[in-house]
Amino acid sequence: MAAVPKRRPRCHGDHGHMPGSPTLPQTPVSPTKRISALDALRGFALCGIIFINIPQTMGMFTYAGQLPEPLRVFFLGRFYPIFYLLFGVGFGIFLRSAAKRSDKPRLLLLRRFLALAVLGAVLHLLQPGEVLLPFAVTGLLVLLPLSYLPRRALLAVALVLILAGVLAGVGGLGLLPGLFALGFALAEMRVPEALDDHPGRLAVLGVVALAVCVLTFWVIALPPPDAAQIRLGMTLSLATACCYVAGFLLLLRTPVGPALSWVLAPMGRMALTNYFGAALLFVPLGTAIGLPGSKRWTAAMLLGIGILLAQAVVSNLWLRRFGYGPLEWAWRCVTYWRSLPIGGAANAGEARGTA
């Protein structure tokens, strides 16, 4: 009797790649095959993050109570959860795509995390508290092992990790493993591709999250014991982030949606470049105008607005000529361990597909 050939283990997210079938070229997905709403949402998150990153890096506050109330209520801890979730989604989409192009997709993901760690370590010298290095460590220690789980188990683990992060009460980074895993699970379940199909679910998410926000804010105002306040604050951050996500994605469906997407989607497609580049700008400029240790909140906000406007213009102009942002292109070259073309003009971030 002839020996039965061994089947290659199916990678999580490896759809339709059977033994003996041709492997697609080991190259990244075209910039035209993206989900525009995710890019716009990522750009939206970048816009909120910078208004906390500037005063935090410039040493303008040491605890939340020193922030002006609008920043504390609407910005502090509200946008990073979105950023965490979207990076998890991106890694999930990447692994699914890589499984169609390589017999060792997790090796590509491993190189992706290692390259991000190097980039984060460099940025940390300029901006202590940056998130790229924690992203890389969390990816290596959490996402790679979890990528072997079935989808439903992955979703359950993600929710448990989020709850554990809240109960631990260690601050925003405590939510990173759970939100990374949740984003990864959503990518495996192909939720991003169906964003346009379920506006009712987005509305329900927004209403429930808003109710949690109101209830949590009321409890915090009582006030509760200190040990409970930080956990309630993290719950409020998560609920507010959910409100922002639902509201923003629904806003994209209105007549102002195309304009928002035109401005923010290119920024989101170049999120790594823009996140890194913001620190290259606001650290020297903030120092030059005397922000370190000061209470010049208006100057800090104007600096953030100026940087965002510059990034919106540059991102649009850059992507008219190239397919990827400069750091995104370098990241792909390291991931695939060879020189890759940076791509031609790619206005077509509108097309749906993988990122």
From TrEMBL:
InterPro entries named among the record's database cross-references: Bact_Transport_Assoc (IPR052529), DUF418 (IPR007349)
Acetylation is among the record's keywords: no
Name of one Pfam family that matches: DUF418
Organism: Streptosporangium longisporum
Record region (Disordered): 1-30
Amino acid composition bias (Basic residues), ranges on this chain: 1-10
Limits of the DUF418 domain: 196-338
Superkingdom classification of source: Bacteria
Keyword entries, A-Z: Membrane, Transmembrane, Transmembrane helix
Transmembrane segments: 43-63, 75-95, 107-126, 132-149, 156-182, 202-220, 232-252, 272-291, 298-319
Name assigned to this protein: DUF418 domain-containing protein
